[in-house]
Amino acid sequence: xxxxxxxxxxxxxxxxxxxALVIGSGLSGIGAxxxxxxxxxxxxxxxxxxxxxxxxxxxxxxxxxxxxxxxxLYSYSFAPNPGWTRAxxxxxxxxxxxxxxxxxxxxxxxxRFHSEVTQARWHRADARWHVETSGxxxxxxxxxxxxxxxxxxxxxxIPGLADFPGEVxxxxxxxxxxxxxxxxxxxxGSGASAVQFVPAIQPDVARLHLFQRTAQWxxxxxxxxxxxxxxxxxxxxxxxxxxxxxxxxAAMEALGVGFRHPALLRALQKVGALHLRAAVQNPRLRRAxxxxxxxxxxxxxLSNTYYPALTRPNVTVHxxxxxxxRDGRVIGADGCVADVDTIILGTGFHILDMPIAERVFxxxxxxxxxxxxxxxxxxxxxxxxxxxxxxxxxxxxxxxxHSSAYTVLEAQLDYxxxxxxxFRSAGWTTMDVRPEVQAAFAAxxxxxxxxxxxNSGGCSSYYFDSNGRNSFSWPWSTGRMRRRLAEFxxxxxxxxxxxxxxxxx
Length: 505
Prior knowledge:
Elements: E1 3-6, E2 12-23, H1 27-38, E3 44-47, H2 56-59, H3 91-104, E4 111-112, E5 117-123, E6 128-133, E7 137-145, E8 167-170, E9 184-188, H4 192-201, E10 207-211, E11 218-219, H5 228-236, H6 238-260, H7 265-279, H8 283-289, E12 301-302, H9 306-310, E13 315-318, E14 322-326, E15 329-332, E16 337-339, E17 342-345, E18 360-361, H10 368-372, E19 390-392, H11 405-426, E20 428-433, H12 435-448, H13 453-456, H14 478-485, E21 493-497, H15 498-503
Parallel strand pairs: 2-3, 2-7, 3-4, 5-18, 7-19, 8-17, 9-10, 9-17, 10-13, 11-12
Antiparallel strand pairs: 1-2, 5-6, 6-7, 14-15, 15-16, 20-21
Helix pairs in contact: 1-11, 5-6, 11-14
């Protein structure tokens, strides 16, 4: 039951005690809430800093925004969507799917919108997480961080950028009120977002200057409109939808073999080279767009329109990083100059330095970020020693270059649900993964990574943290991930129980 508490500023705020508190209401938060309820947790709340659910699919509304994983795989296995209108769904449909799923499973009423977590701290005295938000306060037995790695935009530290007289915005904070028609636009970055929005804006702008620090492999995108008859079949014959999902999963896992054995990716790399050659006739431009690393070393990109857009007369590709911005001009590291009135940052996100880690504290007041010291670490990518009764979703060591985030998430949710069921049935008060278990898992991952394309592909990517360690990638198949997380391993944890607690002096 909530009770009133008076803050230092004389503001009356309620404190609610719940069994589980989920931070975020994107695909991870919604999925966590559904599985927790299925595990028997009824006293549950999600805190969301925005005004609606959806996470990254709410925030990223840039032109051309779409999924780069086949639609049939980009959904919860327990809530398949037979209505995708494209083989690779666009942002509006994915956003609608998340809204609909949250509503269908009764999750929407549990979300507290406009409630940004400012601090979450473990208290030994009552074995609860104490959570401060911009709304109410909470105490919770379980804390589930579902803030996600593709959430907080990474803004580059470019000298003079803050003084640019025109418009500057990140692709995930798209300025729809800023008409790009006839504008002179600089795009900084050539990653997944830029590959999608550059072709969408190119026909409208007067000039487009793409600053590409590193050339990317871009493969053809096997996207197409899904006919109504096929959607009707998927709706009426669930077995057909399961078959499609299983076939696409098998295809993605076959691709994943190459990530673990990079020599196998050479054939696919030839497809990328042929795709580039067919679209770009100019030898100089083609050389600028040809990567010098093995395909798969960075995130795989898919597009049928990116290369053609770069060949248009109003587009200039600058194969260089941005050195500075001065007097309405973007200056490249190679000395090139672009006079522009708009700068769009396609510079990615805080993937491994997740801001939420600065706001979660152990019992001694040390933040999760301070524990990690620049190298995120979690047992099975899910639990962190020193942070009892807490789970991190889409956490470190679980990233793949070939599969769906839903595949990773559901493997974790199996583990979390098993932990919660075990916790409740055994009468535990706390569970904290043993530090030696966490360290052994991290060592196992690091030992397996060097032979993968992530580490041996010859590139610099967001997979590597500030200390130069790959803290992002899972070096094995997702089948192995699912098997590894299928059963909760209680022996990996130090626990206290209600009985032991009540017997303590």
